[in-house]
């Protein structure tokens, strides 16, 4: 588990940093937005999938060959 969101907010306030610094808070924010806007879930998932595909390209998949 992770600390409660209120704890993260207290820590971030005490350290004078935005709560978004913490991964758990960013995930919480995304979850909250998606629950309030379920009509964007499919587009959001497709966007995340496209980011993963783009970042997982292998060296062998490059169009341009490597040279020494």
What brief labels describe this structure?
0% strand; flat; 68 residues; mainly alpha; 3 helices
Written description of the protein model:
- This protein is mostly helical.
- The chain has one domain.
- Helices cover 59% and strands 0% of the residues.
- The protein is built from three helices and no strands.
- The longest helix is centred in the C-terminal third of the chain and has 15 residues.
- The protein is flat and about 50 Å long.
- It starts with a helix and ends in a 13-residue tail after the last helix.
- The mean pLDDT is 88.
Number of helices: 3
Question: How far apart, in Å, are the first and last alpha carbons?
Answer: 48 Å
Q: Which structural class do you get from the secondary structure elements?
A: mainly alpha
| Share of residues in helices | 55-70%
Mean pLDDT rating: 88
Uncertain parts: none
Q: What is the global morphology?
A: flat
Radius of gyration: 18 Å
Strand content: under 5%
**Count of distinct strands:** 0
Major sheet = none
Query: What count of domains describes the coordinates?
Result: 1
Give the SSE order as H and E letters.
HHH
What is the fold's blueprint, element by element?
Blueprint: H1 5-15, H2 23-36, H3 41-55
